[in-house]
Write a structure and sequence with these properties.
With 90 residues, the chain is an alpha+beta fold. Helix content is 24%, strand content 16%. It has one helix at 46-67; strands spanning 19-22, 24-28, 35-39. It has a 3-stranded antiparallel sheet with strand order 1-2-3, covered by helices on one side. The protein is flat and about 60 Å long.
Length: 90
C-alpha cells in the first residue's frame, strides 16, 4: 500500500491554482468555487478506507471554510472567455 501525505498546500477557496487529488478525483481550488473532476472507487479494503478518510478530510476542510464566512445566496456565474480566431475561409 502506497501512503501519500495529505496536501498541506490545499486550503479551500484560497487561490485559483492548487489541486487536491485523491486517486482519480481532483479538487480544483478557486476563490469562488471548487471544481471536482474524475472518479473515486472506495473499495472494501485498507486502500478504500484511506481514500474515504482523505475524501472526508478534504470535504470537512471545505465545509469549515464555508461555515466561517458570511456567504452570499449564490456566486455569480463566470462568463466563458471568448477567444477570437481568424476565419480561415475569409
Amino acid at each position: 500500500m502506497t501512503r501519500r501525505k495529505a496536501d498541506p498546500a490545499f486550503t479551500p477557496f484560497s487561490d485559483d491554482s492548487s489541486v487536491r487529488t485523491i486517486a482519480d478525483l481532483s479538487f480544483e481550488n478557486g476563490t469562488a468555487r471548487i471544481a471536482l473532476h474524475g472518479s473515486l472507487d472506495i473499495t472494501r479494503d485498507r486502500d478504500g478506507l484511506r481514500r474515504v478518510r482523505d475524501l472526508k478530510a478534504t470535504l470537512d476542510a471545505i465545509v469549515t471554510a464555508l461555515e466561517g464566512e458570511d456567504l452570499p445566496e449564490q456566486v455569480a456565474e463566470e462568463p466563458e472567455a471568448a477567444e477570437k480566431v481568424q476565419n480561415p475561409f475569409a
